[in-house]
Request: fold
Amino acid sequence: MEGATKRIPLLWALIPVIILVALLAADVALFGEDSSYGSNQIAMLLAAFVAGAIGMVHGVTWSTMMDRIKAMVASTTEAMLILLLIGALSGTWLIAGIIPAFIHYGLQVLEPGIFLFAACVICAVLSLATGSSWGTVGTVGVALMGIGHALGLSEGWVAGAIISGAYFGDKMSPLSDTTNIAPAVAGTDLFTHIRYMLYTTVPSILVALVVFLVAGFGGGAASGAGEVDLGSGFAAAVQGAFNLHIGLFIAPVAVIVLIARKVAAAPALFIGVLLGAVTALVFQPELVWQLGQAGGAATRWGAAYRAVFQAMSVDTAVVTGNALADDLLNSGGMAGMLNTVWLILCAMVFGAVMEATGMLRRITESLLQGVSSTFGLISRTAGTCLAFNVLASDQYLAIVVPGNMYKTAFEEHGLAPENLSRTLEDTGTVTSVLIPWNTCGVAQSGILGISTFAYLPYCVFNWISPITTLTVAALGWNIRRLPQVKEGEAA
Reply:
């Protein structure tokens, strides 16, 4: 018989979660930042195996779990394609001189004191215009990481500023998929949802910007690695390797315009990859020739083909003789993203088995018990969103499932649907990137080249947003009610 024949007790449902958390903690303790390069994947598969075994004991068939695994993995196909394209894009943009140009000019206008603040604002504006946090982090975010490193700033602080800005813009943009999903699930319209989010989102980003300013000017974001040479040596190294001019920014501007015009992320990024290759051939012909010739190509066309395809697919490095420049001017191409894809696949297997066996629903049902106040309902919703980000490893599930679960409860409490949609975004969307095995956490970690645990404390906007939501609910400020319910009637 398909599906569970017996209701799984809560304690049994928690066992795979406890095992996963214990294994992941052991991975961090023993492997450190390398834990996401294999050990975390094994931990998730082991926890999925335990969940599957418990499910079978309670009547869930292997075919039922396998069907759910297939569906969950299929749902991440576009995300994995985007990750591979971002890897290819970073490679072609490197040999084209686009990323080096961003770093070179960025160092001329961005001082260490204002860098974190400026990085957050830049990413917020770009993400707001495009509706894509992934696109923002994968393009401008990568360049900003290089600039921050050159300025001697902590990678954690720089990544935190980038992610904070990117997720603020994504959350508030009418072009964002999550910003459209949340009101659709809750039962309100898009712009009512966006306007209502202003009451929690604006205070959260203001707090984040203040923190980034203080950290920048106070020196708290310094890496502690000593004085970084940003003098003539670095500038000469970059200018000696690349032809730097305004034409190099055609490709990034084109990608931004495409995404802003609602072209899907994958085709837009693919066009960006091709434009990067063309830019390299047109503006950096000698560099392309040298890279291709070093790989064994004998003719100009052969060298061009080899250099461009190698930049898209595997490791590429531009050697200048300057230690800082050489540290920044390298890319892993698509191959650099394969570990991230591996981690996403394993996370989806665990989430799918937990869902197919009914354990996810059993855990979240327990969160519904005893709700008797507005604050209680909103806090349970926030907790459920976070739980789904942790257990199901996917931000879309962390919005859609809790939204459907709590929609009727919000109506029964006389609360307008925008209360629900705001809570879903304030917790489900922004906390996904803080979970190391969530698709968003895995993706941004892979793109920026830094572990989730390393940037987590510095993503100020992302962890202050749920706190702001709960504070507003506790104070009863700006809690809209349904027209037929008078103020104070509902609990």
